[in-house]
Amino acid sequence: AQKITQTQPGMFVQEKEAVTLDCTYDTSDQSYGLFWYKQPSSGEMIFLIYQGSYDEQNATEGRYSLNFQKARKSANLVISASQLGDSAMYFCAMREGNAGGTSYGKLTFGQGTILTVHP
Amino acid sequence: EPEVTQTPSHQVTQMGQEVILRCVPISNHLYFYWYRQILGQKVEFLVSFYNNEISEKSEIFDDQFSVERPDGSNFTLKIRSTKLEDSAMYFCASSSRTSIFAKNIQYFGAGTRLSVL
């Protein structure tokens, strides 16, 4: 079974509108972290936002927010007021823990969603 | 702002040749990683490295791969005898720690595109 599932291969949004990119995850761990990274056409991986499994509040970083629904195992990224520069591939990733709350830090990525922002 | 630096940005090699991909992690980070991304596919974990030894590796990271921290700043990935299927973007990442209870971010370099001909 896939640990991270991103069901939207591509999404389109009008500039200045909000868009939600879906991510569901599968883990039996109680302690884990969820990440979103942006990969523009130039190829680099840019960290956007993090949500810990024990965090009670949804994470926010500027125009990015994470809609974390633990019971449904979803961690959707919401981008508000889309800009042309938001056009990129977006990856959801998970870091699982092991006993004692330690982790070697390995990230498991989803397939990604290509976001295109139209003017 | 500190960043992870990778060199070269693009490496072209012949099948069977050895390649070394280089990375300079963020200076106060202790945990280092290599990932790869075959064109159009998702990013895959290769190996994690801490305290001068491998802490975890994936099935992809077979005997053809090795990692090393030859000095206090560089972190390298060596592929001994490249295959066509090794063609991919290779990303180095680093983080300050790995506790699952802390917000530990892995910062990625810009990647090295490896083309095996």
If you had to describe this structure to a student in words, what would you say it looks like?
The complex is a heterodimer of chains A (119) and B (117). With 119 residues, chain A is mainly β. Chain A contains no helices and 12 strands. In chain A, strands 2, 5, 6, 10, 11 and 12 form a 6-stranded mixed sheet that branches. In chain A, strands 3-9-8-7 form a 4-stranded antiparallel sheet, with no helix packed on it. A two-stranded antiparallel sheet of chain A has the order 1-4. In chain A, strand 8 and strand 9 form a beta hairpin. Chain A is globular and about 40 Å long. Chain B has no helices and 11 strands. The termini of chain B are far apart. At the A-B interface, strand 5, strand 6, strand 10 and strand 11 of A face strand 4, strand 5, strand 9 and strand 10 of B.
Radius of gyration of chain B: 14 Å
Order of helices and strands of chain A: EEEEEEEEEEEE
State the helix count of chain A.
0
Helix fraction of chain A, binned, reads under 10%
What is the tally of beta strands of chain B?
Answer: 11
Structural class of chain A: mainly beta
Total number of helices of chain B: 0
List low-confidence stretches of chain A. Answer: none
Portion of residues in beta strands of chain B equals over 45%
Topology, element by element:
The complex is a heterodimer of chains A (119) and B (117).
Chain A: E1 4-5, E2 10-14, E3 19-21, E4 24-25, E5 32-39, E6 46-52, E7 60-61, E8 64-69, E9 74-79, E10 88-96, E11 107-109, E12 113-118
Parallel strand pairs in A: 2-12
Antiparallel strand pairs in A: 1-4, 3-9, 5-6, 5-10, 7-8, 8-9, 10-11, 10-12
Chain B: E1 5-7, E2 10-13, E3 19-24, E4 31-37, E5 43-50, E6 53-57, E7 65-68, E8 75-79, E9 88-95, E10 107-108, E11 112-116
Parallel strand pairs in B: 2-11
Antiparallel strand pairs in B: 1-3, 3-8, 4-5, 4-9, 5-6, 7-8, 9-10, 9-11
